[in-house]
Amino acid sequence: MTAPAATPGALAGLKVLDLSRVLAGPWCTQILADLGADVIKIERPGVGDDTRGWGPPFLKDADGSDTHQATYFTACNRNKRSVTIDMATPDGQALLKRMAAESDILVENFKTGGLKQYGLDHESLRAANPRLIYCSVTGFGHDGPHAMRAGYDLMIQATTGMMSITGRPDDVPGGGPLRVGVALTDLFTGVYASTAILAVTTTVRADEVPIVNGEHWTKSSEQVKKAYLVGVANILQIEAAYQGPNPPSDAQSLVPMAAKGLRGHTLDSVRSAVDSFYAAHPERLQRPVVEVIWYEVVVPGSAKAAAK
Fold first, then answer.
1. pLDDT value at position 129?
2. Do residues 132 and 113 make contact, with C-beta atoms less than 8 angstroms apart?
């Protein structure tokens, strides 16, 4: 009995040249790969993507021993093909230009102007492939006062105010701004970038009209962070003079909507945002409503594991 043939993904037939590394760009191209696009990831000779070494944990070989491949890398580079090319050499640049000429989409997350020295910027590549959809993922965009700065998730969380609304109030032990536990800025940037690319490809396919001059999309982490701060960003724009203490991880427009006792056994202030629920059951305002079971993950080989 033979297994049924895999159904082609929605983006089958599209070729993506992935010049990105670490997380935001690779997350974008992984989404495209999951949807069926043929993604070719370009890595540095000898070392590969930075995240290949971001362990432990590492993948295991057939004998159960650690390899040199971090699981972090596999989490954001699924369904891609990979090749190493030295873009600092003339031969490498020529090869990448030929690949770009045959691609539908290119994604990169170099610093502003970083690819121009190699002739791999949008203006250089569009001459050979006017239909190329070119997506640049940056920290602060290609213009403005911070355009030349590198963008890191921690930096964006701090500068856009995400850390100021995460954690506990300033006046309690352990209070103050707190980083979100995962690289949320990078992940959302990847999602927004892939959405922008999909918008272009959908339009092209639906109209069956080629893109004459190509498209150059720029998605900055700073823009993305401001977008998913949602109502909080609006509050800060309207109440620009607000200089209060760091708030806890509470809803800014709903009361009660808070988190307390996070290291106890109950969350005694996490409550529904639906006013009608508590209007009908006011007695529940003073009762614990969520039971919390805490799990601790200890990475083998870490300092915490050694302490145990």
1. 92
2. no
Query: Which pair of structure tokens corresponds to residue 104?
Result: 């539908």
Q: How far apart are CA 69 and CA 58, in angstroms?
A: 6
CB distance 46 to 96 below 8 Å? no
Q: How far apart are the first and last CA of the chain?
A: 50
Torsion of CA 163, 169, 173, 177, to 10 degrees: 10
CB 140 within 8 A of CB 218: no
Which residues are within 8 A (CB) of 79 and not within 5 positions of it... i.e. 6 or more apart? 30, 33, 34, 39
The closest of 233, 239, 277 to 256, measured between CA atoms, is 277
Partnered with residue 42 across adjacent β-strands are 83
At 144-167, the pLDDT tens digits run: 777 677 778 888 888 877 888 788
Q: Would you place residue 262 in the very low, low, confident or very high pLDDT band (cuts 50, 70, 90)?
A: very low
Q: Which of 153, 186, 250, 275 is catalytic?
A: 186
DSSP track, 67-115:
EEEEHHHHHT-TT-EEEE--TTSHHHHHHHHHHHHT-SEEEE-PPTTTT
Cβ atoms 96, 132 nearer than 8 A: no
Phi, psi of 60, deg, nearest 5: -100, 150
186 catalytic, yes or no?
Answer: yes
Sketch out the chain's domains with CATH numbers: 15-228 (3.40.50.10540), 254-308 (no CATH)
CA distance 91 to 238: 54
